[in-house]
Fold this protein.
Amino acid sequence: NVHVNALANAHLPDAKTSAFASDVLAGLTQQPKQLSPKYFYDAAGSDLFEQITRLPEYYPTRTELGILRDRGAEIAAIIPEDAALIEFGAGATTKVRLLLENCGFAAYVPVDISGDFLTAQAESLRHDFPDLAVHPVIADFTTAFSLPRAIDGKPKVGFFPGSTIGNFEPHEACRFLRSAREILGTGALMIVGVDLEKDERILHAAYNDAAGVTARFNLNLLLRINRELGGNFDLSAFAHRAIYNREQHRIEMHLVARKPQTVRLLGTTIAFRAGESIHTENSYKYSIARFGALARGSGWSVQTVWTDASEMFSVQALVA
Ligand code: AVI
């Protein structure tokens, strides 16, 4: 029986691959063509994103870190005693370490879909914060999940840094904040990193870096499709384009066909006109007023907004 299953499985992609496959097929056969930015983050894409966060033009990561560092005491002052910190999505631990150092949390609950990543992260935090109870949860943080019983009765503080909320459509951001409100419960706090509207030239440079790392990050999506779904995209036939859409307050990333071409994947032929684009990402930029309205519409109210001196980025404390 085991043998038969192994054979059968050799021909069946796992559930993750098939969700990727059906999303890619649906996205590339609609007009205009689009792909979800959540698929950027395979191993190579996560590594390229790490490189982006260190680029001179990419201000968000270092600006947010500066706010968390400079306002550490003020943030600590609003955190109740014995609280549990619940991080939605677990990336590099740099930001959460700042909160843990400043605020004296009793427990830390990183929530992420990637179990391997969580285990490694939990290990290093347990080592560096021996008094902290670390309870990783493997789950898709955009949908409902249960918190570990071990933090029952503790005050809850959510953490969603990096302006990842800006990669959601506004209705998705609203749904996410509502779901977080349900999971964390009445009286909870939520600390969210939100990128702000600013001079378009700064935005343009941040997503069109001189070293071309963002272009590689964008094009890596086609490489991933080739590798995991047996596609035959010619990467040299697509160009990275990032533009600011003023009406929608968002950076849009596209991959633009340099010439007419067809691509085969998963038994389907996809035709591209010269100049036709695949829309791969939106990165919404908020005014403080517009984010406040979004938060209120999702069952939260804004308690405090911290920004850097140039008001490039904000860290906002929401209360349920
Ligand atoms: C992860 N996210 C907040 C990044 C952003 O700025 O929207 C992803 C990114 N895309 C291009 N550069 C960085």
In short: Residues 52, 60, 162-164, 166-167, 207, 214, 281, 283 surround N,N-dimethyl-L-histidine (CB under 6 Å). The mean pLDDT is 94. The radius of gyration is 21 Å.
